[in-house]
Amino acid sequence: MSLADSPARQEGSPRGRPRSEAVERSIIEGAIKLLEDGVPLAEISIERLARTAGVGKATIYRRWSGKEELFVDVMRATEPPDTELPGTSMRDDLIALLEPLRQRGLASRSSALLHNVYAQIKSSPKIWAAYQAIVIEPRRLTTFEVLRRGQRDGELRDDVDIEVINDLFVGPMLVRAVMRPDAELPEDLAEQIVDTVLAGLRPDRP
Amino acid sequence: MSLADSPARQEGSPRGRPRSEAVERSIIEGAIKLLEDGVPLAEISIERLARTAGVGKATIYRRWSGKEELFVDVMRATEPPDTELPGTSMRDDLIALLEPLRQRGLASRSSALLHNVYAQIKSSPKIWAAYQAIVIEPRRLTTFEVLRRGQRDGELRDDVDIEVINDLFVGPMLVRAVMRPDAELPEDLAEQIVDTVLAGLRPDRP
């Protein structure tokens, strides 16, 4: 997968108006192209971004407060789209929430470039923190909602700390997708993790 | 915890003879001191290490093939000691295997320095790969042994892929200890993870 093929951002930035979406997209695509061409993040200035997208610097500053904010949108553009939750059961919702992590793992395996982009973003504490707050944290909150609903509906134990429960589902997928780049990511991994953690690893008694 | 207080390496390097252990220790402690003083990894040469420890360069090269190999031993010196497995049950052994990860998480929380050392080591792909192969991989193999024994003894399901089982136990601890530096690491976390994954998260039927 090439970064340029990545799904486009799903929502407009709060500063953008609908009619300027095409401009925003061309700025973000320009940023992705620079990274694809191997330009280090440190050498990508607002001026260079403006030149690449064929717009004025003011056009960029009207939409983003600076490079950090812009690159969070770049990261968002490389993310697999958030799947809609089926809402049929907690189990199905959890699988839908884990699947994008597997997709992201697959994407960074097939693209050395995407892998390098993540590494560069992580090396900038400001952009990484913004990415965590804007992209990761909302997903985490959604997962907590799904888990609490599961507890209310009797699908989930309520005697274990909800943060621990969250990590029991998310941890195994993250470790495979992000921390161990050689680990396999079979198609049914999200399902396997959710079903096994729900059922437990003790053998069935006869 | 200061790096200098870290547990010393537990085994001699294959190149070292017992009588030279004190020399090796002083070289490793010198390396740790340089990192503690904020000297970037890139600026620490064998020459500087020799000067710091008060030995000749040849003394270092007799023990390590170069900087990479030496810094794997430095990393090892900052690791919590591998606990001996109690061997009473798979459950107890798994808890003993997860606990050092929690300890490492606690150590890098209390020491910004240790945190920086990890970050520097990770930024060197050669040292990081050596660390994975020499420190992490043996632990992983021990865990697989414990899991297989659990399957033979009827403590663990045998219808789930053993690598997935491994990640169900290790993933939640790694995510908390390493990936989310703000996550809590309560004293009974290893126990909570192992017992909950074994029992499963479905509510007990009445």
UniProtKB/TrEMBL annotation, chains A, B:
<feature type="region of interest" description="Disordered">
    <location>
        <begin position="1"/>
        <end position="22"/>
    </location>
</feature>
<dbReference type="GO" id="GO:0000976">
    <property type="term" value="F:transcription cis-regulatory region binding"/>
</dbReference>
<keyword id="KW-0805">Transcription regulation</keyword>
<dbReference type="InterPro" id="IPR050109">
    <property type="entry name" value="HTH-type_TetR-like_transc_reg"/>
</dbReference>
<protein>
    <submittedName>
        <fullName>TetR family transcriptional regulator</fullName>
    </submittedName>
</protein>
<dbReference type="InterPro" id="IPR001647">
    <property type="entry name" value="HTH_TetR"/>
</dbReference>
<dbReference type="GO" id="GO:0003700">
    <property type="term" value="F:DNA-binding transcription factor activity"/>
</dbReference>
<dbReference type="InterPro" id="IPR011075">
    <property type="entry name" value="TetR_C"/>
</dbReference>
<keyword id="KW-0238">DNA-binding</keyword>
<feature type="compositionally biased region" description="Basic and acidic residues">
    <location>
        <begin position="12"/>
        <end position="22"/>
    </location>
</feature>
<keyword id="KW-0804">Transcription</keyword>
<dbReference type="InterPro" id="IPR036271">
    <property type="entry name" value="Tet_transcr_reg_TetR-rel_C_sf"/>
</dbReference>
<feature type="DNA-binding region" description="H-T-H motif">
    <location>
        <begin position="45"/>
        <end position="64"/>
    </location>
</feature>
<dbReference type="Pfam" id="PF16859">
    <property type="entry name" value="TetR_C_11"/>
</dbReference>
<dbReference type="InterPro" id="IPR009057">
    <property type="entry name" value="Homeodomain-like_sf"/>
</dbReference>
<dbReference type="Pfam" id="PF00440">
    <property type="entry name" value="TetR_N"/>
</dbReference>
<feature type="domain" description="HTH tetR-type">
    <location>
        <begin position="21"/>
        <end position="82"/>
    </location>
</feature>
